[in-house]
Aldehyde dehydrogenase family protein (Streptomyces dubilierae), 483 residues
Amino acid sequence: MTAGQALFVGGSWAEPEGGHYAVVDPATEETVGWAPEASRDQVRAACAAAREAFGPWSRTAPEDRAAILGRAAELIRRDLVAHADVARAETGATTGTARGMQVAVAAARFRRYARVEPAEWAIPPQINEAGPMGRAGVLGALAVRQPVGVVACVTSYNNPWANAAGKVAPALAMGNTVVVKPAPQDPLSVYRMARALEAAGVPPGVVNVVSGRSTGVGEAAVGSPDVDMVSFTGSTAVGRRIAEVCGRDMRRQLMELGGKGAALVFDDADLASAVAGIGTTFSFYSGQICTAPTRVLAQRGVHDRLVEQLAGYARRLKVGDPREPDTVVGPVISAAHRDRVESYVELGRKEGAVVVAGGERPDLTAGFYVAPTLLAGCTNDMRVAREEIFGPVVVVVPFDDEEEGIALAGDSDYGLIDYVWSGDVARAFRVARRLRAGGVGINTVGRNMEAPFGGFRKSGVGRDVGSYALHAYSEVQAIVWPG
């Protein structure tokens, strides 16, 4: 593993002025590498380097920018296994998840933005009569996507490869320069991404990476006068603080925040499909994912069978060493987060929920493990049903009819992705359109990677993924001329 990792600033690898700190494997509690602690001055230097590089990079032909992204994708894929080993060690993801959903997705995202899309489109001519603005005439117009400038990318710990790539690739494709501030728990993967971009030929200053455990690192990046936009993935609480800073300077922002995904399961649902989909909360990143269907709303006719099958599903999952091929549920990211998740389970008990599966710490000698846990007998006003737990914990709330189910789904501070399981496709689509969420999965937890991604309410601001990310990392300029 990497030891004594350097910062990446202005095209050079620099020793951190704040020294190094240990990156801990959540499965073994052993040190897997030493991450750099940047000083505020080094963060400001990174932002200044990005500002200096912006002009030349924004004027680089889109085809040339795309070629660099394509080379980076190939380099990442070439070293996929080695990259995944580091990702698994610092995140606690299973080997299959680290390879298939972290590194491979990152490579795919760089490949996706290695193709050039039109950045301008014609607007129908307008015929103006004579008046205060001049003589009669025909005015043509063109709308042009222009890069925003310097983007501070503040990424999440649950998927350091895919999350960072989802920001960096479209931002670079549009001609922006970036300063990436990875999550303190697992930054080593992001530095590997920077090395791939460097080897692919990205010019100095176009990509910068600065890390640290101190909140001052992120504050310096978000508050830098050289930064034009902040792209953040993380908790709603931190997102609010970042939004306040951005608001003072009218800085553009893209926020992908928390979630408490409602999964409406109707009486006519395919229960096997619903259980498999909802069960991903237990297994996928050990529930550390904002899109998880963590709040199950079960129609009473199917409620008992659903609870029974979900409990059986949870109990069958192997919890343990993510390096073992048959492990399904690995650890959560840290001891502090394990304690937080366990405190929610205990809170659920006190609120009157019934622990149907899990609820006890797995009997393992090391690692930050939480057993897949199912809480039934919940009501929508319980904190376990309203607050994001971010762990392998699912709560079940019963409902009677369609209207009540929709009302319960909407009774939330969040609105990222909701789900509907029903054998009546017409009803499923009807319900989906009434849900106040940025996305709705109908009989699936799968994602279309060209579909817009983002949230309503406190789940975020803006949309990215696919072509929507190119819009997110650009400003639209109108050019008007006499015809």
